[in-house]
UniProtKB/TrEMBL annotation:
Gene encoding the protein: xpt
Protein name, per record: Xanthine phosphoribosyltransferase
SUPFAM superfamilies given in the database record: PRTase-like
NCBIfam families named in the record: PRK09219.1 (NF006671), XPRTase (TIGR01744)
EC number: 2.4.2.22
Record GO terms (molecular function): xanthine phosphoribosyltransferase activity
Residues reported to bind 5-phospho-alpha-D-ribose 1-diphosphate: 128-132
The Phosphoribosyltransferase domain, residue ranges: 49-148
Signal sequence region: none
Catalytic activity: XMP + diphosphate = xanthine + 5-phospho-alpha-D-ribose 1-diphosphate
Quaternary structure and partners: Homodimer.
Amino acid sequence: MKLLEERIRKDGVIKPGNVLKVDSFLNHQMDVELFDAMGAEFKRLFAENPINKILTIEASGIGIACVVAQHFHVPVVFAKKSQSINLDGESYITKVESFTHKRTYDVIVSKKYLNPEDHILIIDDFLANGCAVNGLIDLIRSAGATVEGVGIAIEKGFQEGGRLIREKGIHVESLAIVESMNDETGEIVFRS
Ligand code: 5GP
């Protein structure tokens, strides 16, 4: 998506350790009009899929998922991160290793909000090693629901997450795929 690529080039900041900071329009301050254009694009890309729910993970996926959901006219569920879970049997639980914080979280969704008849689109801001998305897939499968696809704002194509998830036969669409980025020169190359 050209609009997103241009915005990353203009306002993205490449940090050491393969981290792309997009705080000025996506992760801290949010450009909701850009999110709206992203929502329209995801709607076009997943037009054939019978999606009745969007699943994301807190915190940075929530804003995007909410705007995307307006294009699909479906509710958003966000998986909650926690370090101490009460195993009360009321929630689906999985573990996710955080790329940015280098920690492992328990991630939960109430059983009330994931059902076997659900057809779910996963939305997240970044795809790096795929831990967050794999955790969400795990939760959906625990509920016996169907993964219709994965919609990502920015995929770091030089990390393995995208390849691993596509190899499972899952429909992944990323609006911008970073092929390489250099924190010393500031150079960023997108997959065409
Ligand atoms: P993964 O689980 O695929 O390794 O990483 C995806 C998650 O880590 C995303 O939910 C995102 O919040 C965070 N993340 C991974 N890489 C980056 C990055 O380069 N920049 C930012 N801002 N977040 C990232």
